[in-house]
Amino acid sequence: MIKDLIVNLSLGDKSDPTADFAISTANLLNAHVTAVSFVYEAIIPALELMPIPADLIEMQREESERLAANAANRFAEAARRSSVSAETRQLDETLAGAPETFARAARRFDLSVVSQPRPESPGNDTLFVESALFSSGRPVLVVPYIQRSGLTLDRVLICWDGSRTAARAIADALPLLQRAKTTEIVTVSDGSPALNEIPGTDIARHLARHGLNIELRRLVAGDVDTANIILSHAADTAADLIVMGGYGHSRLREFILGGVTRGLLTSMTVPTLMSH
């Protein structure tokens, strides 16, 4: 069951699609949602030779507090209007330390909700996704920054390649899959003939035993990369949610997103639940 969510709030003065989506998800699941807004420490350039005036540092701090408070207030009001059980937390952190702090907090929740990296600030947004995916031990729901509607589950698309992470994602998403009208399992091949049965048949049987309405589809990549094949099919079939394993590898204690995961995050237009 998914009964306890955590969401990272955007600190801009505009609307926050990720916060709104987290509220709609909690509403659908009758769950509680905790919203985190970070108050960032002042950023002092490493090569600055002259002392930074104390009042300038204080101004940065006050502006960060204002943005965090505004984000929390917007969220609280939206949750109240939706009659969703919710709370807000403001945490002091550095810009670099916030993603890992969020990931540690997410370990105590069933699901974390974060935003797709935005073009204007891809670095820190990407770190929030990576940290939640690889360090929390929990599934992550990534919301497109262009998302306008709440969570619906008319059609869910599962990306299946037989891997451990894909199996984990399916298990984590089961409370959502059980509410879906149709669940489509998609495999992507290079066009070579299958050796035995259609890939995905076994997992389709497994999910059918859970009472899910299952469809199975094999896509051929050809000259198109896997991420774009999946996103194109999701658009063609009007999928409401994508479920997939989150891939990556470690390099000097840093996690590097795999090609398909990175490609989906860059171009995604559909909310995506990832697990690692």
Short description:
The chain is α/β, with parallel strands linked by helices. The protein is 38% helix and 25% strand. A ten-stranded mixed sheet has the order 3-2-1-4-5-12-9-6-7-8, sandwiched between helices.
Topology:
Layout: E1 4-8, H1 17-29, E2 32-40, H2 54-81, E3 86-93, H3 98-106, E4 111-115, H4 122-135, E5 140-143, E6 155-159, H5 164-177, E7 182-189, H6 201-208, E8 214-220, H7 226-236, E9 241-245, E10 248-251, E11 254-257, H8 259-267, E12 272-275
Parallel strand pairs: 1-2, 1-4, 2-3, 4-5, 6-7, 6-9, 7-8, 9-12
Antiparallel strand pairs: 5-12, 10-11
Low-confidence stretches: none
By CATH reckoning, the class of the largest domain would read Alpha Beta
Radius of gyration: 20 Å
Strand order of the largest sheet: 3-2-1-4-5-12-9-6-7-8
Which structural class do the helices and strands define? Answer: alpha/beta
| CATH evolutionary superfamily of the largest domain | HUPs
Quote the beta fraction: 15-25%
CATH topology description of the largest domain: Rossmann fold
The topology string of helices and strands comes to: EHEHEHEHEEHEHEHEEEHE
